[in-house]
Amino acid sequence: MEVLVFAIFNGLLYGTLLFMLSSGLTLIFSMMGVLNFAHASFFMLGAYFAYSLSRFSGFLTALVVAPVIVGMIGALVERYGLRRVHRYGHVAELLFTFGLAALIGELVQLIWGRVNVPYEIPEAMRATAFTLQGLDYSIYRVFMLLVSVAIFLALALLLTRTRVGLIIQAALTHPEMVGALGHNLDRIFMLTFGFGCGLAGLAGVIGGNVLGTEPAMAIQLGSIIFVVIVIGGLGSLSGALAASLIIGVLDNIANTFSIPFAPFFHLFGITADMGGIWNDLVRITGSSIAPVLPYLLLVVMLIVRPRGLLGKRDV
Fold first, then answer.
1. Is the dihedral of CA 211, 216, 217, 220 positive or negative?
2. Which residues lie below 8 Å from residue 49, measured CB to CB, with a gap of 6+?
3. Which of 194, 195, 312, 315 counts the highest number of beta carbons within 10 A?
C-alpha cells in the first residue's frame, strides 16, 4: 500500500510538470491555432537560463527572470518569423517551428555544451515537507504541485473572467470583428505566443533540476506534450490538466509495479516455449511497456473519442 501511495504521488508530480509544459502549448493552439513543434525547446531554454542565472543570483531570481527572457524570445519569434509564414497555412508553420526546434538545439549545445549541466534543486527546498506512511516528500515537490495548481487557476481566470482573455478568445474565432473594434490583432497574437513560450520556460525552470538539464531534454518531452493536448482535447486547459495527471500516474505505476503479462498470455495458450515473437510477448512486463503507454492511450482516445476528454472539436 505504501508503495502504491508513493507511486501515485510521484505520478501526480510528474503529471503537474507535464501540465506546466503543455499549458503554454494549449494556450497557443487554442488562441492562435498554431501547433508549435518548438515548444519543448523553449522549455529547454528555460532550464538552461535558470541554471546560468541561479549560479550568480540564486534560484528565486531565475524563477522570475528566466521565464520572462524565454517569453520575450517567443514574442520575437512570432513577430519576425512565425507571422511571416502564417499566411501560407499550417504546413508552413509546422515546418518553421520544426526548423526552429533544431536551431535552438544546436545553439544550446554551442553555448552550454553537449553534456549535462549541474542545475540542482535549491538547498533550502530539499528539506522534508511532510512524511506519509514512512515516505518523505521534499519542500520542492510540494512547491512544484502548488505552482502547477496556481498556473491552472490563473489561466482559467485569465481566459474566462478578464477582458483580456475574452479579447484573445474572440481574436481566434472572429478576428475581423476584433480588429474592427480597434484591437491590434498582430500584437495580441505576439503577446499570446510569447506568454505561452514563457509558461514553457517556467516549466523548464522548475522541472530542469528534477529531470536533468541536458541537450536531449527537449526531444525526450517534445512528443509527450502533443499526446497530452490531444488526449485532453485540443484547446482545453482542463483537459490538458486531466490528461497530464492520468499519464503521469499511469507511467509511475507501470514503472513501480513490474507486473508480468505472462499469465494473461497463458489464458490464450501462448507460452515462452513456443519460441519466436511469442517468447518476447510472454516476457513483457508493466515497466517494459511504460514508455509506450501514453501513445497506446492516444490511439485508444483517437478511436473512441477523437475530440479528447474535454475538447470541443475533433483532431
1. negative
2. 62, 65, 66, 69, 70, 201, 204, 205
3. 194
Alpha carbons 49 and 96: distance in angstroms, whole number: 23
Cell readout for 288 is: 517494459
**Backbone φ and ψ of 70, nearest 5°:** -65, -40
The amino acid at 14 = Y
All cell numbers assigned to 250: 499511469
- Report the chain's C-alpha Rg in angstroms: 21
| Reported confidence tier of residue 101, pLDDT bands at 50, 70, 90 | very high
C-alpha cell at 23: 499549458
Q: Is residue 208 within 8 Å of residue 47, measured between CB atoms?
A: yes
Residues 6+ apart with CB under 8 A from 293: 247, 250, 251, 254
Domain boundaries, the chain: 2-215+248-259
CB-based contacts of 182: which residues, under 8 Å, 6+ apart? none
Whether the per-residue pLDDT at 110 is higher than 90: the answer is yes
pLDDT at 108: 94
The amino acid present at 276, given as its one-letter code, is: G
More confident residue, 143 or 275: 143
Count of CA atoms in the C-beta half-sphere (13 A) of 84:
8
